[in-house]
Amino acid sequence: MRELLQTQYEAQGYLPDDAEMLAEEQLANGGLRVYTTLDSGMQAIAENAARTHVAQLRDVHDLTNAAVIVIDPPTGEILAMVGSVDFNDPSIDGQVNVALAERQPGSTMKPFNYAAAMEQGWVPATVIWDTRVSIGIPGQPMYEPVNYDRLEHGPVHVRDALANSYNIPAVQTLRKVGVQYLLDLMHRFGVKSLSRDASNYGLSLTLGGGEVTLLELTNAYATFARGGVYVPTTAILCITDDQDNILYEYADGCQGGQATGATRYASPSRRQVLDQRIAFVISDILADNGARTPAMGANSPLNTGDLLTSVKTGTTDDFRDNWTVGYTADLAVGVWSGNSDNRAMRNNPSGLVGAAPIWQDTMVGIYQAHPLPPPQLIPPAGVYQERICNVRRLKDPATECQSFRQEWFFEGSVLVPDGNQMVPAPLPRPEEPVS
């Protein structure tokens, strides 16, 4: 809050040192009224979900802490923030707000990777080879990504690769997209914590080989919910003194009071950072419970039944971090779980085990307790559906397709004939090794 007041005084023309002194005096004198965006009911639901689930996993997995962020996508307002499961517990560094700490995000990076590929012409029906590949990196051993299930799945569509969180296709996708391109996209989405040079991340960036904060990541997912529109987050709407003079105001958050001449903050800056058609398609894939069933199961905690949600999990290689982030048009919920001291958890819990149940309880609990509109995914102009073969036939193209499904395409997508259907041109199968 001191920073907000200091910024306000600087906007009035005070030098930085003087503005800092005035802000400190204002805080020391007291009498301030601070109006936040936090919703006490949603906060209680998130806290209860985190504490309950951590208590269940503490002994089995040595998982001792969790953080939760809840955001209102239309406004960027932070509705709930759980920084730890117990503020007063020093054994888990309870006074550290893990929601603002930089941690490796695991596979929660993959939707952005595929969104970047779609900016370069890909569609959900684009075929990627999920087969063993060795990638030469100068001065380093050969890089050979493996899938979480240690299997290879042959030619897969983008929808299946993302929904099932396959690692090899994600790395192959980033090779096509480019690490710098993905970093630039993440910066557009407001993820400033990925601040190092592209050479410091490499292809593992798509698997979570960087560090982000839960707050930034949840708002990046909320950008998909907004149809590709980025809105910055805020937790404070208004600060007044004991005479009701406005010291700070965000987007008319004070709704009254007497202005003191302080510069008021305008409505949050909104900017289109991703084509809304791509945002829709990514959301549709992340909401496709059938597509993710091979890896996640049909009745995983990601399945919210009639509540249509788009969601993705993440797990770091060393099982130090579990993540689940998901959203509707009206609610974005992000969860991290693990240990604040960065030690590995026991028995290899994935994000599906360590974070997804907290996410589900928070998301469903808020919808049950609050009058939010039923979530739906409405296709924007410029997308259409085309029939494609549901059976991968690249190894034997002469085989007649036995099963079809509808898939989304963008107007202007380049398709090629394949029997009695039109499909995207398949990507060439990688050779081994690849340098």
Q: What characterizes the major β-sheet?
A: 5 strands, antiparallel
The proportion of residues forming helix, as a percent range, comes to 25-40%
Q: Please give the CATH class of the largest domain.
A: Alpha Beta
CA-based shape: globular
**Unreliable stretches, pLDDT < 50, 5 or more residues?**
258-263, 429-435
Architecture of the largest domain in CATH?
3-Layer(aba) Sandwich
Compute the separation of the termini in Å. 51 Å
Strand order of the largest sheet: 3-2-15-14-13
How many distinct helices?
Answer: 12
* Percentage beta strand: 15-25%
Mean pLDDT: 89
| CATH homolog superfamily of the largest domain | DD-peptidase/beta-lactamase superfamily
CATH topology of the largest domain: Beta-lactamase
Rg on CA atoms, Å: 23 Å
Task: Compose a concise summary of this entry.
The protein is α+β, with helices and mostly antiparallel strands and 435 residues long.
Describe the structure.
- The chain is α+β, with helices and mostly antiparallel strands.
- It folds into three domains: 2-30 and 233-259, no CATH class; 40-76 and 100-231 and 271-369, 3-Layer(aba) Sandwich (Beta-lactamase); 383-424, no CATH class.
- It is built from twelve helices and 19 strands.
- The protein has helices at 2-11, 16-29, 40-61, 110-119, 158-163, 167-177, 179-188, 214-225, 276-286, 289-296, 351-354, 356-369, and strands spanning 33-36, 65-72, 77-82, 102-103, 127-130, 154-157, 212-213, 229-230, 236-240, 245-249, 258-259, 271-272, 310-315, 321-327, 332-338, 383-389, 404-410, 415-418, 421-424.
- The strands form seven sheets. Strands 3-2-15-14-13 form a five-stranded antiparallel β-sheet, sandwiched between helices. It has a four-stranded mixed β-sheet with strand order 1-9-10-11, covered by helices on one side.
- Strand 2 and strand 3 (77-82) form a beta hairpin.
- Helix 4 (110-119) crosses helix 6 (167-177).
- The longest helix is centred in the N-terminal third of the chain and has 22 residues, at 40-61.
- The chain starts with a helix and ends in an 11-residue tail after the last strand.
- The model is unreliable at 258-263 and 429-435 (pLDDT under 50).
